[in-house]
Specification:
Elements (H helix, E strand, L loop, with lengths): L6 E3 L11 E3 L21 H17 L14 E6 L4 H5 L6 E2 L7 E4 L12 E2 L2 E3 L5 H8 L1 H8 L4 E7 L5 H5 L1 E2 L2 E2 L1 H14 L4 E13 L2 E4 L7 E6 L6 E4 L4 E3 L2 H14 L2 E2 L7 E2 L2 E12 L13 E10 L10 H28 L13 H13 L1 E8 L6 H16 L8 E2 L5 H22 L6 H20 L34 H32 L6 H101 L8 H4 L8 H8 L1 H32 L34
Parallel strand pairs: 3-7, 3-20, 8-19, 8-20
Antiparallel strand pairs: 1-2, 4-5, 5-6, 9-10, 11-12, 11-15, 11-18, 12-13, 13-14, 16-17, 18-19, 19-21
Helix pairs in contact: 1-6, 1-7, 1-13, 4-6, 8-9, 8-10, 11-12, 14-17, 16-17
The structure holds adenosine-5'-triphosphate.
Adenosine-5'-triphosphate (ATP) binds next to α5 and β17.
Length: 738
């Protein structure tokens, strides 16, 4: 370890006096001598939030008391020069800046190799050299503002500088070296511990401004936010910003970690983890005299309301090799340019120059900062620069900006109001109301017989506990136990010596031991509280258990009911379907049965008709023979009549077997043409009848081939040759069956 310069911190004599860092005189030297040169530490914000709890308490306990800024008309401007980076060392860039040991407020360009140097000397409130760590940076450039915020002044701390110049390192820090934000958080709680006469309400918010869009880093969906004018002149409202009530440092750290994970960072040509957005971490602090038991707690007391905003600006930068980075860079540069313009206008105003318009509205960054820049806040700006000559131009630009800032006038006032809108007031009112309601309930209905009464009381109690836990007092925020020191005592003015040596293993072990002891103590206190709560409970069966049992049995009933109702419909559906199919099946079987019977009947009828047909055909032949015989008889009769041989006329029966004589037909035709033709017609009609009969019969046969179309019923029993012995057909089946 290289020898560190011995630093003495002189305690301020009056509250107004600003702390002043005295450095043991040493020769004018370059800010980054290669011998024992501090190396840049890589920043991983996740580690910072996990590890910083180990360090902040120790750091704070060893800080000298810093007075708050009861009055400050100017911006506190500090210049922090970081150690040279690896790339600057590789390039063998010369150290460009020196700060003489006799005046730690001055910074001037170093003599360069050719022996020339810029003569300009710059003066600021503080020059923080590369060997100064974050704890001392906090003490000199931020702590007074944090303490003032606790006392009711709005305070803004921001870091400005070229990309990779050390803004995030200064504000967030590194695992072994917590930055301004973690130290400020620890300090806020430390101040609460040290103020037994006051009660506090703390809320945290975290937003980023990326490419002119405001994003809420604490809302789960990274909500986009809008700005609007407030009721008071110059007031700017961030609509919908998430503000989380916080009870412990751990809670704030968790929120910060959450926000850091969502924050836009990206690699650039100059910084592997460059902030691509401006980030505002804000604590809103409300405080008032604590209830002392004699007055009605929480009513009509003056409340101090203030905000502490810590802003990590994105770095001004040159053109980079990435397209996306360039778009971001344009937005970043544009908003920083507007900030510069606003600052220079404000500086002109402070010098009584005629300024018509301050362009706050030209960028979201300046709109956000408007209330603070227009004088409503105490401001501390830490401008970070690189020590290397290659970055001289950017560093000069940063120093110019810082110079402008120094001329801006502020007029911050402590805000102390009897304001019913103060949240702490509303919480206290609600606490008082809840307590009164619970007391009333206890008097009116001590046994809490009904379930709804019990539930309501429990809800009221849990709300009451939640509200109480949000109102912080010196006893409720726990203790800050540093090894070897009594816990929770206010900062001792005797402990002025600045002494942090984190490199010693025993110091780290002591830190860890201290942390474990603190946790054990917190748990012991919690056990005591729980025991007391348990004792205070009525001895009757626990209302919560009864209520839960009630709930369980109701749920069981509901579940059983559900099951019943769920099964019922499916069973019914199944039954309906089964019934439907059984009916259908039965109907089909019946149809089958009827059709089979019908087919049998058709077969039988077919057989009967075939038989009848044969009989009819035989009769037909017979009838024809008879007809021939009649015709023959007629011709014989006619012949006999002609010849007068009437006695010779044979009987028809006798003639039937007599063959027709040759040529008899021709002579019959000639002589008895008309008669014969009549008889012929008669014969024809008989034949026709016979044919008709046959036709009808064959139609009927044909119809037997098709189901359901029987065709006209065959003549049965009636007709020319009616025979009473004709078969009786079976009755057809009713068509309706089909
Ligand atoms: N005072 C310091 N001591 C040691 N290391 C430092 C110091 N300042 C910066 N560094 C280192 O320099 C690097 C760049 O710093 P940082 O990221 O803080 O820059 P930045 O200004 O926030 O950049 P950007 O604007 O791109 O976000 C980091 O690796 C950091 O650890």
């Amino acid at each position: 370890m290289p020898d560190r310069p011995k630093i003495k911190v002189k305690a301020p004599t009056t509250p107004e006096a600003r702390p002043r860092v005295l450095v043991k005189p040493k020769a004018v030297s370059g800010l980054g001598s290669s011998n024992g040169r501090p190396r840049p530490l890589p920043i991983d914000t996740k580690d910072v939030w996990t590890n910083e709890a180990n360090h902040t308490a120790y750091v704070l306990e060893n800080l000298e008391p810093t007075p708050s800024l009861a009055k400050s008309e100017r911006v506190l401007v500090s210049i922090r020069v970081r150690p040279p980076s690896e790339s600057e060392l590789r390039l063998d860039s010369q150290i460009a800046w020196v700060t003489p040991a006799y005046d730690l407020r001055m910074i001037k360009p170093a003599v360069v190799r050719d022996g020339t140097r810029d003569k300009k000397e710059w003066f600021f409130d503080r020059i923080i050299d590369p060997e100064t760590d974050n704890a001392r940076t906090y003490a000199t450039a931020a702590r007074a503002h944090v303490l003032s915020a606790m006392e009711g002044f709005n305070a803004v701390i921001f870091a400005y500088g070229q990309t990779a110049s050390g803004k995030t390192f200064t504000l967030t820090g590194a695992p072994q070296s917590p930055g301004i934000i973690p130290l400020a958080i620890a300090d806020l709680f430390q101040q609460i511990r040290a103020s037994p006469d006051r009660e506090f309400l703390l809320r945290a918010s975290y937003l980023e401004l990326y490419n002119e869009t405001i994003i809420d880093l604490l809302s789960p969906d990274g909500r986009e936010l809008t700005l609007s004018e407030g009721r008071r002149k110059g007031e700017v409202i961030i609509n919908g910003l998430t503000e989380c009530g916080v009870r412990t440092e751990d809670e704030v750290r968790r929120l910060l970690r959450m926000g850091e994970e969502r924050r836009k960072v990206g690699g650039t040509d100059w910084n592997a983890r460059s902030s691509r957005s401006h980030c505002v971490f804000r604590m809103t602090i409300e405080s008032r005299t604590a209830a002392d038991g004699t007055r009605t707690p929480g009513r009509d007391k003056a409340t101090r309301i203030s905000t502490l905003s810590i802003i990590d600006l994105a770095g001004s930068e040159k053109h980079t090799s990435s397209k996306e980075r360039n778009v971001e860079g344009r937005h970043i540069n544009q908003s920083l340019l507007t900030l510069k313009l606003v600052i220079s206008k404000l500086a002109d105003m402070a010098s009584n120059r005629d300024v018509k318009h301050v362009p706050y509205r030209d960028s979201k960054l300046t709109r956000l900062l408007q209330p603070s820049l227009s004088g409503d806040a105490l401001i501390s700006v830490i401008c970070t620069i690189s020590p290397a000559a290659i970055n001289m131009a950017e560093s000069n630009s940063t120093l110019n900006f810082a110079q402008g800032l120094k001329r801006v006038m502020l007029s911050a006032q402590r805000k102390e109001v009897v304001d019913p809108e103060a949240l702490i007031q509303q919480y206290q009112n609600e606490i008082a109301d809840l307590k009164a309601q619970l007391r009333e309930k206890e008097v009116d209905n001590p046994s809490m017989s009904s379930k709804s009464d019990r539930v309501k009381s429990q809800e009221m109690e849990s709300r009451l506990n939640e509200l109480k836990s949000l109102i912080l007092t010196s006893s409720s925020v726990g203790t800050l136990a540093v090894p070897g020191t009594p816990a929770a005592r206010p900062l001792s003015p005797a402990k002025l010596k600045y002494h942090v040596d984190m490199a010693r293993p025993e110091a780290i072990l002591r830190e860890q031991l201290h942390e474990v002891e603190m946790r054990a103590q917190e748990q012991a206190e919690e056990i005591e509280l729980l025991k007391a709560a348990l004792d205070a409970r009525p001895k009757e069966p626990n209302a919560k258990i009864l209520e839960l049992q009630d709930e369980v049995s109701q749920l069981r009933m509901i579940a059983a009911d559900y099951e019943r109702h769920l099964r019922e419909p499916s069973r019914k559906v199944k039954q309906d379907v089964e019934r439907e199919w059984t009916d259908k099946h039965k109907r089909l079987e019946e149809k089958m049965r009827v059709k089979s019977a019908y087919a049998l009947r058709l077969d039988e009828n077919c057989r009967l008709l075939t038989d009848e047909n044969k009989v009819l055909a035989a009769r037909c032949n017979d009838a024809e023979t008879k007809l021939q015989a009649v015709i023959q008889w007629i011709s014989v009769t006619l012949e006999s009549e002609e010849e007068g041989e009437y006695d010779e006329v044979p009987t028809l029966t006798a003639l039937s077997s007599v063959p027709f004589p040759n040529g008899a037909r021709e002579s019959l035709d000639a002589d008895f043409g008309p008669k014969v033709s009549r008889l012929g017609k008669l014969s024809m009609s008989m034949r026709g009848s016979n044919r008709d009969l046959q036709n009808e019969f064959s139609k009927f046969r044909g119809s037997l081939g098709g189901v359901g179309s029987l065709g006209p019923a065959p003549p049965r029993g009636g007709g020319l040759f009616r025979d009473d012995s004709a078969p009786t057909l079976l009755a057809p089946v009713d068509d309706d069956v089909f």
